[in-house]
Structures are given as structure tokens and as C-alpha cells.
Write a structure and sequence with these properties.
single chain, 641 residues, alpha/beta, 7-stranded mixed β-sheet, 17 helices, binds 5'-O-[(S)-butoxy(hydroxy)phosphoryl]adenosine
Length: 641
């Protein structure tokens, strides 16, 4: 195994050989004092006296800093606007790559107050839910922070989700206000955001007001009395709402192995403490860094490491509206040179697609401003890691491979640039205060090394989700039931002889497509919304760029006269309508039956073997209700390749 040894001169890193051990020691032996001390990095109206108060046994309850009072927006905006008003908070790069827009902390303060004032005028109050369905423009950050300022709970829905998905989320959280844009702009294409909102609201009539930000010059229909073009009123300053540390900050929907997406709820004090700390220490963010995380604000990475973490730290964060290969696959590298980006955080899928585009796209940039690189979203394969290290980073940058989840609020495992040896593909070590465990299928902890098992966490951390919005028993069932007393991540992991962790991927029916999480059940349900399809089974298969691709096996109705190609087009379109373009399948096979047990359970394991062309691994099929179906599926699969 190739190892990249820890830096010899590590003292320039915030966390280095001089302070790492003692921090680790306190976090372990005295977590209360460790976290209370860390909480001092925020500005509190009432400083908490209690750190964690939680139990993972049912009834599951998780609280952090419960007697603390603060406002998240004050922490991300006001205190920096007071001390470093001229420092750039956000550098925004638009889809076309025109002159970047620099937004200072003083300007951010004005913008956020203007938006907060407008929301208040609409009657939005503490605890109300606001849906944000917007492109990556600075206004998305203003909207999030404005909600935080007045105590409203935001739920950002990624612009790649369809009106159906949007509608489901609006209804689930009972939002009364939606903030959107007339259109989005991504990779030169427009995204009909407002039109999607209009369709979504046909099923969600409780929404009273829609704020529309005009990103383009396109005119979109406006519903009188409901839709309002947002015009900032800079004369207004809104007093920040005092929030208990455990008051909700946001809901973010994510897919699981069963049912509809769940609303992951994060609260104020613990979330911000954890996002801010992990951002600064893991990315080693110092005074003059230009930090860029390419994630969309519609995902947790965008929440924690584009908006909340960086702004809480008074850092300069880059926000990019576009995509990596538009207009050309040197786009990211050009931006890095232009803005002198020093810290760069992206996903393996982007790295792989740019690697595939060819090294010549690196020649138009030097990327010499870079000093640290990060990866997130899925396991990074060694080849992509090496390319990132040797080519993108010119061997000058340490890479932090960060493992975490929507549920964890912030990074849970990663090498620290100034401390750990790097191993391509390994997230190496838990962050301070995080206690991972590998459990066997019976829930017994495996202590020895090397080991492999179900990746769980033994004790709470401030960034942990608190509940599934409106459904606490679903929270308990999903994360705390399979292995009582532990938070179970749904991932499998291996621990090597050095005690370093390697994430092996999901062990449940959740796919990770280009770093986006999708439940197989969700896609199956979506596909059968068209009446020509009776039943489907969805499995993942290795995809060279996306990491995992979506493969669908579908049974058409007996009466259906469409050709296979027509059926495939129907399935594609139905899924795009139900979920969104991000769930568009990569392969569809029209079959007569599915491998089921006699009790009717689909044997996805068999389909996964077929999807990988590992027919020899299928094994004994005699217990299936109809064993001949396997041969039939293999035939269809092989013919279509
Ligand atoms: C799932 C969480 C929070 C980041 C964005 C995705 C996978 C995430 C890594 C990594 C291996 C990773 C896991 C996890 N994952 N980061 N560095 N190495 N796998 O958030 O949609 O909540 O998905 O992404 O499978 O469970 P998410």
C-alpha cells in the first residue's frame, strides 16, 4: 500500500504534532470540557454550562449546549461585519465565468438584513418553515442566513429535483413561504425553477407567498397575491432572534432505504459549533486563505462547508454557479488560478470526469496557489486520488478524504493535513471526540485490527442530527434500532492494521450516484407511476464517472403494446418527473419477471451480480419462486450490452 508520510515541518498547520495529542486526550477523557471550550469560538447571548446530554437507547434524545442562547446569523455575519467589514465573505463566480463578484462582510450584513426584513414583512416568524429552491447565486446564502436571523427553519431543495419532489418536501415540512428564482443557469442551460414551483404548489396550496429572484431576464408567470419579485430594502436592520442552542436551524431531506425522503433536522448551537470547528481545523483555514468547496447549497456539504462553516469562521468562501466541464474541462482550474484559491474541496465524481477529459486541460493553469485539497461524497478510488495529488495539486498539497453524512452535520473521519500519513482511498482517522465502532451483523463490536463491519458511532457529537422532522420514531428506527446503543451510519468500513478506516460503501439499499444519495425503493416507486410498468427493481452498478450507476429491471403490463425502446423512454421520463434529472437511470432492462423468493421478496443480490456481469457469483437459485427467471434476465442483460 502506497503511503504519503505526514509532513516533516508540520508547524504551519493549525493542528500539528505539538497540539494534536493533547487535544485528542481532552476530547476523549473530558468531552464536556472539550466541547464547552470549543463552543467559545461562537458568540453566545448566554454561554452554555452543559455540553452533551444524550442517550442512544430508546427513547433516543440528543441535546448539546441546551442552556445556551445564540443566533446563527449573528455568528456568521454581524461579528465579522463589525471586526473585518471589508474582508471578502463570498466570491461568487457565475455560470459564464464572467468577472467574479466579491461580497464583503459589510455587504453581506446589508443583504441578509434586507432579506430578513422582507421575510418578516411576509409574516414569517420563529419556527416557521421556509423552502429555498434556488440556483447557486449569493441570494441562496442570504436566504439561509436571513431565515437563521429571524429564527425561521429553512429547507433548501436542490434545483435538480423535480416539482414532484419539491412538492413532497413542501408538504412534509408544512412550509408557508418559498424562495426561488425565475430560472437557474447551469452549464449554459436554463433550469425552470419558478415553473417547477408553480407545478409543485398545485398540490401544496398552504403556501402563501413565493419570493422570486430574477436571475435571468426571462419573464415568468406570476400569481397575483402570491408571487412577489424580491427587491432588497437596504435601509433595514433586523434584530437577530435569540435562539436556544436546541432550536431548529434547518431541515434537509435525504433518501433512505425505505419510503419517502426524510427531513434531517439540525439545530443551532451544536451544528454551528461543529461545522465551524471542523471547517477550520480540517481544511486548516487561516487568515488569508481563499477557500472553495464546489458543492451546491442544496446538499449538506453546501450547508456546512460553503455557507455556515466558512462564514462562522470569518473566512472567504467561493460560490460557483456552474459545473466542472462547462464550457470546457479546465473551468475549475481557471477559477483556481483567477481567484488564487488555496484550499479546494470537491467530489470524486468531478475528479474522475476531469481526469477522463485528459491532462491537457490542466496545461492552461498552474494551480500554484493551492496548498490543501479535499474529497467528499463517496469512496475515492486510488487512481483518482493519485491524479488529484500528482496532477491537480502538483504534489504540493495534502489531501483530506472526509467521510461524513447529511445526518452527521459535519466531517466525522479524515486525515489531518499536519498530522497523519495519507493513504489514497482511506478516510484514516476519526475527528476529535468521534468514537467510531465496527460492528458485526449481530451488533458485537470488533476490537481487533484489521477488521471489517458495520460503521457505527458510540457517542454523540454536537453536529449530530436530532430527529427526522415530524417523525421521531422513524429517526429511532432508522439509526438506533439495528444496533441498539449505537448510531448506525448505513455504511460498511474496514479498519487496517494501522487502525486507519476505509469506507467500503453503503450496506443498505441506498445508492450513491455522483455523490448524491438515492434510495432504490424511491426510484422503483417513481418508475411504476406510469401505468405501463407493473414492477421494477433497482440496483447500483460500478460506473466509471458516477461511482455508482442506476440500473433498472422493469416488468411491463401484459396489455402493453409499446416497444422496449418506447418503454425505456417512458421510464426515464417518469423518473425525471417524479424525482428529477439526478435520478435518471443509466441502464434499463425490460424483463418478464424478477428473481423473487416464494414469499415475494425481490432478491436484489442476484440482480447486483447480473449488473456487474458476475454471473458465477449468483449461486443457488433453486429457492426462488421461479428459478428460470434468472436465465431470462441474464439473456436480456447480455443482449443489450
Ligand atoms: C454517504 C452520505 C456528507 C457528504 C456528502 C454526501 C458516502 C461520503 C465519503 C467518503 C467514502 C463517503 C457514504 C455516506 N460518503 N463521504 N469520504 N468516503 N464514502 O452526503 O448524501 O448524506 O451521503 O456518502 O456512503 O454514508 P450524503
Amino acid at each position: 500500500m502506497m503511503t504519503y508520510p505526514k509532513p516533516i515541518d508540520d508547524q504551519s498547520y493549525l493542528i500539528n504534532s505539538s497540539n494534536h495529542k493533547s487535544l485528542q486526550q481532552t476530547a476523549k477523557t473530558d468531552p464536556n470540557n472539550f466541547w464547552l471550550d470549543i463552543a467559545k469560538r461562537l458568540e453566545w447571548m448566554n454561554f452554555p454550562t452543559i455540553a452533551g446530554n444524550w442517550q442512544f437507547q430508546k427513547p433516543v434524545s440528543i441535546k448539546w449546549f441546551e442552556d445556551g442562547l445564540l443566533n446563527v446569523c449573528t455568528n456568521c455575519v454581524d461579528r465579522h461585519a463589525n471586526v473585518t467589514p471589508d474582508k471578502t465573505a463570498i466570491i461568487w463566480v457565475d455560470d459564464q465565468g464572467k468577472t467574479p463578484t466579491h461580497i464583503s462582510y459589510a455587504q453581506l450584513f446589508k443583504e441578509v438584513n434586507a432579506m430578513a426584513f422582507s421575510l418578516k414583512e411576509l409574516g414569517v416568524k420563529k419556527g416557521d418553515r421556509v423552502i429555498i429552491y434556488m440556483p447557486m447565486i449569493p441570494e441562496i446564502a442570504y436566504a439561509m442566513l436571513a431565515c437563521a436571523r429571524i429564527g425561521a427553519i429553512h429547507s433548501v431543495v436542490f434545483g435538480g429535483f423535480s416539482s414532484e419532489s419539491l412538492s413532497g418536501r413542501i408538504q412534509d415540512c408544512g412550509a408557508k413561504v418559498v424562495i426561488t428564482a425565475n430560472e437557474g443557469l447551469r452549464g449554459g442551460k436554463t433550469v425552470p425553477l419558478k415553473a417547477n414551483v408553480d407545478t409543485a404548489l398545485l398540490q401544496a396550496p398552504q403556501v402563501e407567498k413565493v419570493f422570486v429572484i430574477n436571475r435571468t431576464s426571462a419573464h415568468v408567470p406570476m400569481v397575483a397575491g402570491r408571487d412577489i419579485v424580491y427587491v432588497p430594502n437596504y435601509a433595514q436592520v433586523v434584530t437577530p432572534e435569540p435562539m436556544n442552542a436546541e432550536d431548529p436551524l434547518f431541515i434537509l431531506y435525504t433518501s433512505g432505504s425505505t419510503g419517502k425522503p426524510k427531513g434531517v433536522l439540525h439545530t443551532s448551537g451544536g451544528y454551528l459549533t461543529y461545522a465551524s470547528l471542523t471547517h477550520q481545523w480540517i481544511f486548516d483555514v487561516q487568515e488569508n486563505d481563499i477557500y472553495w468547496c464546489t458543492a451546491d447549497a442544496g446538499w449538506i456539504t453546501g450547508h456546512s462547508y460553503v455557507v455556515y462553516g466558512p462564514l462562522a469562521n470569518g473566512a472567504t468562501t467561493v460560490m460557483f454557479e456552474g459545473i466542472p466541464n462547462y464550457p470546457n474541462p479546465d473551468r475549475l482550474w481557471q477559477i483556481i488560478d483567477d481567484l488564487k484559491v488555496s484550499i479546494f474541496y470537491t467530489a470524486p465524481t468531478a475528479i474522475r470526469s476531469l481526469m477522463q477529459a485528459g491532462d491537457e486541460w490542466l496545461e492552461t493553469s498552474s494551480r500554484k496557489s493551492l496548498r490543501l485539497l479535499g474529497s467528499v461524497g463517496e469512496p475515492i478510488n486510488q487512481e483518482a486520488w493519485e491524479w488529484y495529488f500528482h496532477k491537480v495539486g502538483n504534489e504540493n498539497c495534502r489531501i483530506v478524504d472526509t467521510w461524513w453524512q447529511t445526518e452527521t452535520g459535519g466531517i466525522m473521519m479524515t486525515p489531518l493535513a499536519g498530522v497523519h500519513n495519507l493513504k489514497p482511498g482511506s478516510a484514516t482517522q476519526p475527528f476529535f471526540g468521534i468514537q467510531p465502532a465496527l460492528l458485526d451483523d449481530l451488533g458485537k463490536e470488533i476490537d481487533s485490527n484489521p477488521a471489517e463491519g458495520n460503521l457505527s458511532v458510540k457517542s454523540s457529537w454536537p453536529g449530530q442530527m436530532r430527529t427526522v422532522y415530524g417523525d421521531h420514531s422513524r429517526f429511532e428506527d432508522t439509526y438506533f434500532s439495528q444496533f441498539p446503543g449505537y448510531y448506525f451510519s448505513g455504511d460498511g468500513a474496514r479498519r487496517d492494521a494501522d487502525g486507519d478506516y476505509w469506507i467500503t460503501g453503503r450496506v443498505d439499499d441506498v445508492l450513491n450516484v455522483s455523490g448524491h444519495r438515492l434510495g432504490t425503493a424511491e426510484i422503483e416507486t417513481a418508475a411504476t407511476m406510469d401505468h405501463s410498468i407493473i414492477e421494477t427493481a433497482v440496483v447500483g452498478f460500478p460506473h466509471p464517472i458516477k461511482g455508482e450507476g442506476i440500473m433498472i429491471f422493469a416488468i411491463p403490463g401484459a396489455h402493453v403494446t409499446h416497444s422496449d425502446d418506447e418503454l425505456k423512454a417512458i421510464i426515464k421520463q417518469t423518473i425525471r418527473t417524479q424525482i428529477g434529472p439526478i435520478a435518471s437511470p443509466d441502464a434499463i432492462h425490460i424483463v418478464k419477471g424478477l428473481p423473487k423468493t416464494r414469499s415475494g421478496k425481490i432478491m436484489r443480490r442476484i440482480l447486483r451480480c447480473i449488473a456487474k456481469s458476475e454471473f458465477e457469483k449468483i449461486g443457488d437459485v433453486s429457492t426462488l419462486a421461479d428459478p428460470t427467471v434468472v436465465e431470462h434476465i441474464i439473456e436480456v442483460f447480455s443482449a443489450k450490452k
